[in-house]
Amino acid sequence: MDNGSGHPTESGAPTGVMEGAVAPQAAGSFHTLGLSAATLAAVDRAGYTTPTPVQAGLIPRALAGIDVLGQARTGTGKTAAFVLPILEKMMHPGRPGGPRAIVLVPTRELAVQVKDEFEKLAHGTKIHCVAVYGGKPIKGQIDKLAKHPAVVVGTPGRVLDHMSRGTLTFGAIEMVTLDEADRMLDIGFRPDIEKILRRCPDSRQTLLLSATVPPPVQKLATRYMRDPEIMDFSVNELAVETIEQRYFTVDPTRKFDLLERLLDREQPRQAIVFCRTKRGTDKIYEKLARRRSRSRDRGAAEEVACIHGDLSQSIRDRVMREFREGSVRILVATDVVGRGIDVSSVSHIVNYDIPEFCDDYVHRVGRTGRMGREGIAFTFVSPEEGPQLTRIEIRIERLLKRDEIEGFEAFDRRPKPAPVEHVPTGGFQRAAAEAAAGEAAPEAEEPKRPPASAGLGKGRGPKRHRRAL
C-alpha cells in the first residue's frame, strides 16, 4: 500500500492529502521518542536502530493519546510505528473484560504479519496477541480469545463474526488501529468497520493509517475520530529514488517468453510477478515452474510459488512463510494478496499484467525497495495498453524508462501496418533520441506507445495514435 498523495491526478486534483497535514522528520534515536526502558529493550532486541520518519512522527503523538490519521505506504516501518505505542499502553493496568487494543487489516496475510510484529516486540512480556481472520476454523480462534489476549488483530469480517457470537467484546478497548484503511474500504469492508467502531468505547484512541486519503477515508475519520492530527508521511514517496521503474512493449503472445528472458537476465534475489486474475496467476505459475524445472535443475521449480484468494488459508500461510524464509524466490500473485506481502528481500517486481488502476501500480511497486533498499520494477505493456501506462506516469509524475532485451523479438515478425505515430504532449515527452532511433530502423522497432485517444475512420488506412493528457 503504497503511494503518497497530493500529486496531481489526470484531472489535476490532489488525491487525498487532507488540508493541514504535516510531514514529520526522522529522529536520530528511539530514545528520543518517549518510550519506556522495557520497550526500548524490545526495540534493541528486534534489531531496530534508527526510527523511520513514520515511527519518529507517529510514536510520540500516539503515546500522548492523540488520534492520528497518518498517510504512509508499507515498507516505511509503519507496523512498528503503531505496535510500539500499543505495547507501551498495555504495560500499564487497564480495564478488564476483554482485549484492550484491536487492529483491523484488509487481508489475512497482513493480519499474520502484524501479529508476528507484536510477538517479536512483546517477547519476554505477558502481553499476548491473537490474529482472527477467515479461512481458518473459528473454534481455534475462539479458544485463543477465551484466554483474554490484550491485543486482537483481524480482518473486519471475522472480527464482526466473533462479535456476533459474543466471543469478542469491545467494552475494554482503549486503542483502535485501522491499517491500510483505503484498501479495506476498496474491498467493501466499510459497513463492517463502522459496526465495529460503533461498539468500541467513545473514549478510545484511534489511529488510522492509509496509503491514500480519498473522500471515503476522510469521511470515516471525520465520523469516528476525535480531532485527529493529520500526518503525511508520503511526501515524495511516489517517486522513490531507490525504486527504478521500466517498461517493455510486447505482444501479449510473447509476454511469457519475455518473462523468462527477463528473469534469466536479472537473476533477482526475490521477485513478485503480478497478474490481474486468479486464473492467469495459476497459468503463469504452472508454466514458469514447468519450464524452469526443465531448463535448470530439479530444485528450480520449488523456487516458484503462487498465491491468490482462491487458495486455502493453509496453502497461503505456507507460501508466505516459505517466501519470507527465502526458499521461494519467485512469487506469482494477484493484487488481492499483494498488500499482505511485506518482505524486505524482494528486489524485483514484474507487472506481467499492467494494473487497471494507477494506485494499484503504486502499491505493487511498493513491494520492493523496502526500508530504503534498492529495487526495480518492470511493466509489460501491449500496444493497446499505452493509455494505462500514460495514466500511471501522470499519477507518479515520472516517466518510466523503456527497456529491451538484446536479441528478443517482442513482436511477431509478420507484415505490419505502417509505424504508429507517437505524439507526446504536455510535460510527458519522450527523449528525441528514442524517437529518432525508432524512425531510423522501423523494421526492428517495437510498436510505439498507443494512444490516450484515437479515431479510426473506414477506408482511411492505418490507425494513427495520439497520446494526450
Structure description:
With 469 residues, the chain is an alpha/beta fold. The protein has 3 domains: 30-232, P-loop containing nucleotide triphosphate hydrolases (Rossmann fold), CATH 3.40.50.300; 243-414, P-loop containing nucleotide triphosphate hydrolases (Rossmann fold, 3-Layer(aba) Sandwich); 418-469, no CATH class. Helices cover 36% and strands 13% of the residues. The protein has 16 helices and 14 strands. It has a 7-stranded parallel sheet with strand order 3-4-2-5-6-1-7, sandwiched between helices. Strands 10-11-9-12-13-8-14 form a 7-stranded parallel sheet, with helices on both faces. Helix 2 (53-63) runs parallel beside helix 3 (78-90) and helix 14 (358-365) crosses helix 15 (386-396). It is globular. The relative contact order is 0.12.
